[in-house]
Amino acid sequence: MSTPVPIPKAELHIHIEGTLEPELAFELAERNGVRLPYATVDELRAAYSFSDLQSFLDLYYALMAVLRTERDFTDLADAYLARATAQGVRHAEIFFDPQAHAVRGVGMDVVVRGLAAALESAEERHGMTTRLILCFLRDRPADEALRTLEEARPYFNVISGVGLDSAEVGNPPEKFREVFATARDAGLHLVAHAGEEGPPAYVWQALDALGVERVDHGVRCMEDEALVERLRSERMPLTVCPFSNVRLRVVDRLEDHPLPRMLQAGLMVTVNSDDPAYFGGYAEDNMRGVRSALGLGEEDVRTLARNSVNAAFIDADRRAALLAEVDAHRFAD
Ligand code: HPA
Ligand SMILES: [Zn+2]
């Protein structure tokens, strides 16, 4: 039996550090002389059982200890590009967390140059276009985020936007109002995680205090009718990550995911992998997962793929070319 061809799509919610597969983590640990507190790949994989966002973040930040040199970041991004290509990703907007590397003395230059070295040939090697989005850690102070933004300024030619991630509850978007205003003045795109574990009020704030162009996750918007109406009427993209929501216990089971209700409500939802090395699958795995668990039809899947292209930070020609690819896709029987 041959594997069906994945639907062409854009991936808009992917943390590059969350693509660090255990095998690569061990390889980099060896190369850099870093000791991991796990003896084997299987032992490490067995630790991927999370009770909430924080329990995941603890492991996610700890494993980053293996990422030290430009080459490490290039290898990490190359591995993602190859996997994403095999999953039908034709355009990827990739988050990175510079503050999580700065704590180990790994500076902005190493991270951005390393990632950019992989991304600059992605189109030639994979036919994939890419963007980089710098995420601020919301559980760190706002003035640190502002300093991080200034450190990134020399790289604004390769950074398309800023985002907001890490521990959500207790760290409302409002805290980063000034940072986002500065990023907007610099011509950067704005996105933020909101309504993953945090309440609908955080989604309102992401819209009104930060002026985001997309909301990452946003699934808890379904608890607030007026918010759903606002998101629907503005056609605000929501980058939903189904496997992530199950693994971080935002929903109990994939079968309980609100995605069908979100589509039904007319929301502009997209399907993404978030941290695929930790959550059990890449973009097409998530797409197939929701399709079978939630009984989505082929045209729902095509709508999700079209939404991803329409929500991407790309020019009109690239958008038209990708929409044509999505429309030409034929589902296997
Ligand atoms: O899903 C997430 N939420 C918040 N922060 C994150 N950092 C990586 N993944 C996530
Ligand atoms: Zn995320």
Name every ligand kind in the structure.
hypoxanthine, zinc ion
Strand count, sense and barrel status of the largest sheet are: 8 strands, parallel
Proportion of residues in β-strands: 5-15%
According to CATH, the fold-level topology is TIM Barrel
Taking the alpha carbons of the first and last residues, their distance comes to 12 Å
- The gyration radius over C-alpha positions equals 19 Å
Average predicted confidence as pLDDT: 97
CATH architecture: Alpha-Beta Barrel
Helix content: 40-55%
Specify the structural class.
alpha/beta
Instruction: State the low-pLDDT regions, or none.
Output: none
User: What is the CATH domain class?
Assistant: Alpha Beta
Give me the side-by-side strand order of the main sheet: 1-2-3-4-5-6-7-8
- Total number of domains: 1
Number of strands: 8
CATH superfamily: Metal-dependent hydrolases
Reading the helices and strands in chain order gives: EHHHHEHHHEHEHEHEHEHHEHHHH
Write the layout of secondary structure elements.
Blueprint: E1 9-15, H1 22-32, H2 41-46, H3 53-63, H4 70-86, E2 89-96, H5 98-102, H6 108-119, H7 122-126, E3 129-137, H8 142-152, E4 161-165, H9 177-185, E5 189-194, H10 200-210, E6 214-217, H11 225-233, E7 237-240, H12 242-247, H13 259-264, E8 268-271, H14 276-279, H15 283-294, H16 298-310, H17 316-328
Parallel strand pairs: 1-2, 2-3, 3-4, 4-5, 5-6, 6-7, 7-8
Helix pairs in contact: 4-6, 8-9, 16-17
The structure holds hypoxanthine (HPA) and zinc ion.
Which features does this protein show?
eight-stranded parallel β-sheet, alpha/beta, binds zinc ion, 14% strand, 8 strands, binds hypoxanthine, 333 residues, TIM Barrel
